[in-house]
Here is the input.
Amino acid sequence: MNLELTIQTEVAKAIKELFGTEAELKSIQIQKTKKEFEGDVTVVTFPFTKVSRKSPEQTGEAIGTFLISQNPIITKFNVIKGFLNLSISAEYWTKLLLEINQQPQFGIMTPDEQAKVMMIEYSSPNTNKPLHLGHIRNNLLGYSIAEIQKANGWNVIKTNIVNDRGIHICKSMLAWKLFGNGETPQSTGMKGDQLVGKYYVVFDKAYKAEIKELMEKGLTEEEAKKKAPLILAAQNMLLAWENNDPEVYQLWQTMNGWVYEGFEVTYKKLGVDFDKIYYESQTYLEGKNKVEEGLAKGVFYQREDRSVWADLTPDGLDEKLLLRGDGTSVYMTQDIGTAKLRYDDYQISKMVYVVGNEQNYHFQVLALLLDKLGFSWGKDLVHFSYGMVELPEGKMKSREGTVVDADDLMQEMIDSAKETSLELGKLDNCTEQEIEEIARMIGLGALKYFILKVDPRKNMTFNPKESIDFNGNTGPFIQYTHARIKSVLRKANEMGVDYSSITFENIQLAEKESNLIQLVSDFPNVVKQAGDEFSPALIANYMYELVKEYNQFYHDFSILKEENEDCKKLRLVLSETVGNTIQNGMKLLGIDVPERM
Here is the structure.
């Protein structure tokens, strides 16, 4: 039952009958009636005044009178200027509620074999440090966008590109070799990524000490940075890696192996995953080959120093370096190589890169280059550009060891959720195992919701204290509402109330009840809009509006103590349907909802 289409069809009939004109359905504007006016849906009458030869108010009166005479689902109407407000019958809403209730996956599409492929890249970590708060926002956005696009019928491939080569990992490797005394994750009890990250910080401190010493001997800061023994040794190590030096290559494999094991633990705890992981060490050579192919075809050009460039000035950009004179690659080369491998692996229709807004220009260039190289989806690639995330204390720096470690933050959130829930008595009568699992759901739910409810294109400050609040626009508030609904349904079952097969006839719906049904029925539209706009925030804030509306209903109306049996059963079906919608919506955000709290 699509109310918007039903009303459009009926209005089109009215316009033909009253004014002798065919009206296209898409020209008939339908919107939800504003709260200050009586009605459920509103028809904009301004566009029809030319054919009616009447004022907007008279046009609305004529259409409203016709609709009431022709269709029993419209019970009343009123006209405010050029807006025709229509009241929909209780019978329509109750039938719609039953239809929705019988579809546990209402609003969620399942991709079929013919579905087009959308590939979504997110995470993209470096192997010289553990994941931090910035990575958390990236991973949560990428995973949620993937789930939302799946719900819109796309065949989604979630992918990750690991930056596992370059000077950054050589810095960690060199510091470990010089100062590590053979430490391993096993010997220290540290996660592998955290151990490698520790030596990235060690390198930076030692490097700064060398710079200071050289400056005291009379060198400028820039000269000291270039001539410090540690940076020269790291550069030599990178060259040795590129020349497949066995000792360097073995150390690189060992330390990256530690990092991957650490990443996997973090990803699992965060609740994100990937269908395919690519590694820069495996893609940059493909990129070089693709650039050389473009050079041979005249797409690119070579300068006297043998460096290869793309001239993008006709496209309103500048010239872009693709290969250095010594044949070494740049980030753009790697992205071209990764694109080639992905296109070989999957028939991609749309490619989405979830990368921070500091890379906006990079992806403008990449889109043009891929198009010039013949990738059909190149020009239409989506750079999902999101803002930075900080803590109230300010910015974070990996080199100085001041980043907020993702593992530490998640554990702090879980511990805080447990403490807050116990203080409020939310976990009374739960076993220790249930307490741990519910605390995990609440802590991670608070973290995920707080980050995802914000417009992703904006910079944001993550406030852990604000996020764990059982009131307001927070994850725990929504989770608690779901648990409350489940509690009501359990009690109904214990009382022997069967609401599984019932028709609701001659029931007078209260305004809050019909509002809730309308809100639930709008879920598929919200999912579609969130997919069109790549915005998990639309889902998150819809969830908040839904639970806020439900809690007002729960406060104002009796459910289990309602004496009218049909009324009681309707409210139970309504509660169950809202609960299903909360579960489905939060799942799109990667958030679990507990059965009890």
Remarks:
- Residues 394-401 have pLDDT under 50 and may be disordered.
- DSSP finds 22 helices and 14 strands in the chain.
- The two ends are 35 Å apart (CA to CA).
- The longest strand covers residues 348-356.
